[in-house]
Amino acid sequence: AQKITQTQPGMFVQEKEAVTLDCTYDTSDPSYGLFWYKQPSSGEMIFLIYQGSYDQQNATEGRYSLNFQKARKSANLVISASQLGDSAMYFCAMREVRNSGNTPLVFGKGTRLSVIA
Amino acid sequence: DGGITQSPKYLFRKEGQNVTLSCEQNLNHDAMYWYRQDPGQGLRLIYYSQIVNDFQKGDIAEGYSVSREKKESFPLTVTSAQKNPTAFYLCASSIDLYGKHRDPNTEAFFGQGTRLTVV
To answer: CB distance A102–B45 less than 8 Å?
Structure first.
């Protein structure tokens, strides 16, 4: 069964500094995808970045990068040059690939990031 | 403008009542999902559907029901059997068609959510 663990309920970071949000996952399937979503206080879910299990390079999207360590089953999100608007909940999620197709996303409990001016 | 629309944004339910949350998408996506979010918790899967006229239970389906009569619509009914329905409900969709998509890089798009409160 899929499982996502985010061990940091809350994080603080100074504006313009970098921050790493931790995510570990558990799966026995060789093909899977890892996602990070941002949820501001408005409640909407904003897709940030994706990493596939067979991708050789770490994913990057602007100020977001994913530190993918497959052997350790970790997929940490790195946000560089933090901005006040980065204050939000961040969720790590995973889906696997089956004969019936892709499974639904399974989410971790999230990390609340607060950026301090 | 393609997207997912959930309505209403806020919903109040009396004890013992059934209520239905609406979710409509115009993204031509085959798969649709309902998640529940409680304070300090992640999103938990209630039901999902990967094709019209078919749906599957998620991890917390008890006390909920769904239908998928049209590709665009996936309404969720919170029944009186759901003992603690107060939560934030999120609907999502993705292109994943049952038995077809085997590339996990299929982003799920979310609606704005419905906040349900029992009064």
So the answer is: no
Instruction: Report the Cα–Cα distance between both ends of chain A, in Å, rounded.
Output: 41
Q: Write out the two tokens for B5.
A: 């629309």
Residue B119 pLDDT: 87
Give the contacts of A28 (CB within 8 A, at least 6 positions apart).
none
pLDDT band at A6 (very low <50, low <70, confident <90, very high): very high
| Residue in A23, A35, A44, A45 to test binding to B, most B beta-carbons within 10 Å | A45
Asked if residues A33 and A94 have their Cβ atoms less than 8 Å apart, the reply is: yes
> Cα(A95)–Cα(B22) distance, rounded to whole angstroms?
25
Strands B109-110 and B87-94: antiparallel
Contact A26, A91 (CB under 8 A): no
Cβ contacts (< 8 Å) between B110 and chain A: which residues? 44-45
Residues 6+ apart with CB under 8 A from B108: A35, A47, A105, B33, B92, B93, B94
